[in-house]
């Protein structure tokens, strides 16, 4: 099968986001200029640089009360900061609850009963029991082609690691089993790990 996206795929569901999988989930915490906390998951998310450490996420939807985007991007525009929380398998239902199309006045931390803690370097909340949390200062918001497509790039200025996820000086993902987004409504859990040496090592 071959198709050009501009012409449509002819399938019952769009296969695009099932092709690029698995995708890590950035559970993005923000705080509005009015002090209102927001928490929402994004599967267009990844780390993009080591020095300085940088991450990105993309928002592709719109809310009628947010001037052409969603709460997360609107808050970051106002405050310049956000926190990325890593999602573990044990938090899947809490994370899923925060993905709802709630009005801007809804505090997803409270609504989903996600434990909250203050960040150390930025004025923002984080998920207190997340395996890791990355405190970020926004570096760029890039408007991509298409309606309401925004790419947010942040520099990581603070890192929280949950103590039980460290083993012999290594951050061990098998201790918490990260959740990954597949296509459609499907998710996967990462629990099997193997190592490969690069040529010449």
Question: How would you explain this protein's 3D organization?
Answer:
The protein has 201 residues and is mostly beta strands. It has one domain (5-189): Pnp Oxidase, Chain A, CATH 2.30.110. Helix content is 12%, strand content 35%. It is built from four helices and 14 strands. The strands form four sheets. The chain has a seven-stranded antiparallel sheet with strand order 3-2-6-9-10-5-4, with helices on one face.
In spatial order, strands of the major sheet run 3-2-6-9-10-5-4
List the total number of helices. Answer: 4
Mean pLDDT: 96
Number of domains: 1
The whole-angstrom Rg is 18 Å
Proportion of residues in β-strands: 35-45%
Distance between the termini: 40 Å
Could you name the CATH homologous superfamily?
Electron Transport, Fmn-binding Protein, Chain A
In which range does the helix fraction lie?
A: 10-25%
CATH T-level fold name: Pnp Oxidase, Chain A
Net shape = globular
- Listing every helix as H and every strand as E from the N terminus to the C terminus, the arrangement reads HEEEEEHEHHEEEEEEEE
> Can you tell me the residue ranges where pLDDT is under 50 for at least 5 consecutive residues?
none
**Biggest beta sheet summary:** 7 strands, antiparallel
| Number of strand elements | 14
CATH class: Mainly Beta
- The second-level CATH architecture is Roll
